[in-house]
Known about the structure:
Elements: H1 2-27, E1 30-36, H2 42-53, E2 59-65, H3 70-76, E3 82-86, H4 95-101, E4 112-116, E5 133-139, H5 146-149, H6 151-156, E6 159-163, H7 175-185, E7 190-193, H8 202-213
Parallel strand pairs: 1-4, 1-5, 2-3, 2-4, 5-6, 6-7
Helix pairs in contact: 1-4, 2-8
Amino acid sequence: MKLKVASKILDANDRIAQENKNIFKEKGVYVINLMSSPGAGKTSLLETTIRNLGGKIKVGVIEGDITGTDDAARIDSLGIPVVQINTGGACHLDANMINEVLNDLPLDELDVLFIENVGNLVCPAEFKVGENMKVMILSITEGHDKPLKYPLMFQESSALIINKIDLKSFLDVDVEKIKKDAASLNQPIKIFEVSCKTGEGIDNWVKWIQTLIS
Length: 214
């Protein structure tokens, strides 16, 4: 019974996700679903990415949190269209939540829409929202065991951003193992090592985003 209920929920979600995807395609908006655990640096990466794009690409953001508006306020301060979704307890964004806020964004004016999902290493990977691709952010402070502990996140992501690389010398973490294990789960996954604090690796990430949009 539980399996049937779960299947129905995912099927209904997938139908709405496809509706969202059709809307994004019609508007010419490329959609990136950012996933990570809490504190891995999703909002910091967004801020750094937006600044480095320098207005060359028109960006919009949907912020997903259980509660609060701090992250949305940070994006809004950059002059970027942003909508906050508070899930009220749900550990992920779903397609219906995204669908309900689309009219609050100037989709006709955007090139790319970043969806910052709720911080969680499990549920966000299971729910499509209409995105073109999922991107996972892993902070090296989380350790090198995460790919094998949370494989679906890595299998569903088109890219892995290994963040806070500036802390590598202070931690007993094997970054090469993270990369090896991620590739073993998802051979085509694109991997970036970055530091939002120092700017290391950000150029490569931003250039890749630009190639996707062009």
